[in-house]
Amino acid sequence: MPKIAHLADLTPPSLDRTWLTAPHPTLPLAATCCADKTVRVYSLSNFRLQSTITGGHKRSVRSCAWKPQGRVKGESVLATGSFDSTVGIWRRWDRYPFQGSMQEDEENTSNNNNNNNHDDLSMGDEDREEEEDEEEEEWRFAVLLDGHDSEVKSVSWSPSGSFLATCARDKSIWIWEDLDDGDNNFETVAVLQEHTGDVKCVAWHPNEECLASASYDDTIRIWREDVDDWGQVACLKGHEGTVWYIDWEAARGLDEGDEDAREATPVSGPRLVSCSADRTVRIWRRRPKAQPTTTSSSSSGIPSIIRPINLDETWDQQAILPAAHDLPIYAVSWNKRTGRVASTGADGRIVVYEERAVADTSSSEQQTNGEEMQVDGDGNVPKSEWTIIASLDAAHGIYEVNHIVWAKRADRGRANDDEEVLITTADDGSVKVWTIG
Fold first, then answer.
1. Per DSSP, which regions of 255-340 are E strands?
2. pLDDT at 64 > cutoff 90
3. Could you tell me where the beta strands, DSSP code E, fall in 27-132?
4. Residue 416: which domain range?
5. CATH of the domain at 15
6. Which of 98, 249, 315, 326 has the most other CB atoms within 10 Å of its CB?
7. How many domains does the chain have?
8. Looking at the whole model, is its pTM more than 0.85?
């Protein structure tokens, strides 16, 4: 049975609440959003603070997201969402190998003397950790996106990096297009207002320009673009409390040759995992579309707007994961390689779940850990079940844990290049790294 073991704390910690930590998509870095109006960027190689992003927001920074690819190779772009109702875009030249090249742009690197160990990120010699007078990476505040009427709760880039989605307490979702013209220009392409409560989280499909959102109204909604207009194509109902967070399964599923990964049941397209104040974690699956028909009615709850019927999607609740939390669950993360799911929340507990194949059955229903697993869109029973493989109480002592995310392990003590860790972010300002094994 795997165990959750503490590997390290990201140091120094914030002196105020931390909300979320976002691993960089290609580099051994992680950005942490803090209530002190800053974003702290840490190395996952030595777990030390590399730089602090300040000056852009007037209130707590609630969310951040790395752009999949900067406008220029070797440039990192970070979006930040704040309780001051604004979204910030930040840019920085990377000073270590990025996609096979070393960026040496001195004009965009400050000469401040400090003890940040940037050379650690390029996996240099151990004695580099002791070097002083390293140069701090300079973050450039590129643009402020203004439009929301209240606290911004979540930001997310589309897989192409062309679109940025933001959501807020004002019940709206904004979709911004990065014009990628070198002048930091963004254009508002949609304002989506079908949610009837605060929108807590937005997340883009891993390889499609399809957006999912989670809300205080207990629903999850799916959005797609039709020609030049964005609209809702599905409303997922089932949770009996605020849906705090959502995450997508990897587009490619599991690595079939990975002996350490679970045996996957083939699915049609990525699934969604969600968590809620109702203390449940749920898996949702899009039903494969049937051939076009002449049916003129729809039961998906799409607003009164003329839209082609074939854009509607039907999503089934595929599973409710085994009960493991005593209080609201604030965050879930779906491992893109192994398929494991991790959750955490107000009870301070970390739980890791694994999906395993089960034998075929001719019954139309079956029980999984006391919960009924619903029949899928083809009328077949999903041939898998979820079990808890690891759990840890009081991960941050008495404090609530606000976020959890999988990341590639990058420290020198790693067991192998494929190992992954969990990163948790909590009310006490600490950010902790955990191994599963």
1. 272-276, 281-286, 315-320, 329-334
2. yes
3. 29-34, 39-43, 49-53, 61-66, 75-82, 86-93, 109-114
4. 4-436
5. 2.130.10.10
6. 249
7. 1
8. no
